[in-house]
């Protein structure tokens, strides 16, 4: 039985949202047998490419590693904590990097913000096309930097697991419990400091 058969994952929003936003969530249970659809992965990367950035600087770069590749195994080895327990089942892992300084060494102050937007566009397009994503901050940035010989101008910001939904029952506890728990968010009134 799949997770979607047992628990609704659509957000209980206070105002209607686009389905791709309301239905998007971050599973940990991925199908370790499913091969990621190349066109869908490319579409998600294209969505990231077309996201907005300060001065159109486009400070994002990505390391894309499909399950079964040495690059994938290297990324999994640099994940921390529980992330190593589940992320290896994803169809691909995507490291998002921010170019925090240009070629002349000038600081790109908004680079990490812009990379966040690019990854958000990636995740929404992926969900629209039937893929699932889970963004992670628990990884060894220095390990990734060394393994992939990343230029110092670039900073690893996140790792995103992407693939097809798997069976939550295959997850170890307490990950299974977290996977099946209802989705929650702070109330809209709590996140609006000023709404004049």
UniProtKB/TrEMBL annotation:
Gene3D superfamilies attached to this UniProt entry: NADH Oxidase
Q: Does the keyword Lyase apply?
A: no
Q: What is this protein called?
A: Nitroreductase
Question: What are this entry's molecular-function GO terms?
Answer: oxidoreductase activity
UniProt keyword list: Oxidoreductase
Q: Which SUPFAM superfamilies match?
A: FMN-dependent nitroreductase-like
Give the source's domain of life in one word: Bacteria
Q: Boundaries of each Nitroreductase domain copy?
A: 22-163
What family, per the record? Belongs to the nitroreductase family.
**Species of provenance:** Leifsonia shinshuensis
Instruction: Cite the source lineage.
Output: Bacteria, Bacillati, Actinomycetota, Actinomycetes, Micrococcales
């Amino acid at each position: 039985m799949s997770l979607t058969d047992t628990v609704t994952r659509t957000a209980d929003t206070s105002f209607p949202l686009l389905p791709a936003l309301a239905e998007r969530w971050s599973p940990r249970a991925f199908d370790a047998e499913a091969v990621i659809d190349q066109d869908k992965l490319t579409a998600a990367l294209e969505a990231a490419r077309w996201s907005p950035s300060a001065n159109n600087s486009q400070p994002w770069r990505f390391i894309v590693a499909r399950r079964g590749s040495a690059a994938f195994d290297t990324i999994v080895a640099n994940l921390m904590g529980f992330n190593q327990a589940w992320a290896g089942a994803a169809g691909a892992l995507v490291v998002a990097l921010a170019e925090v300084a240009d070629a002349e060494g000038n600081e790109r102050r908004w680079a990490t913000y812009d990379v966040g937007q690019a990854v958000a566009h990636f995740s929404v397009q992926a969900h629209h096309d039937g893929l699932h994503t889970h963004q992670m901050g628990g990884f060894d940035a220095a390990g990734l930097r060394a393994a992939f010989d990343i230029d110092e101008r670039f900073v690893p910001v996140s790792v995103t697991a992407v693939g097809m939904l798997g069976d939550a029952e295959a997850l170890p506890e307490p990950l299974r419990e977290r996977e099946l728990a209802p989705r929650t968010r702070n109330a809209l009134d709590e996140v609006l400091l000023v709404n004049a």
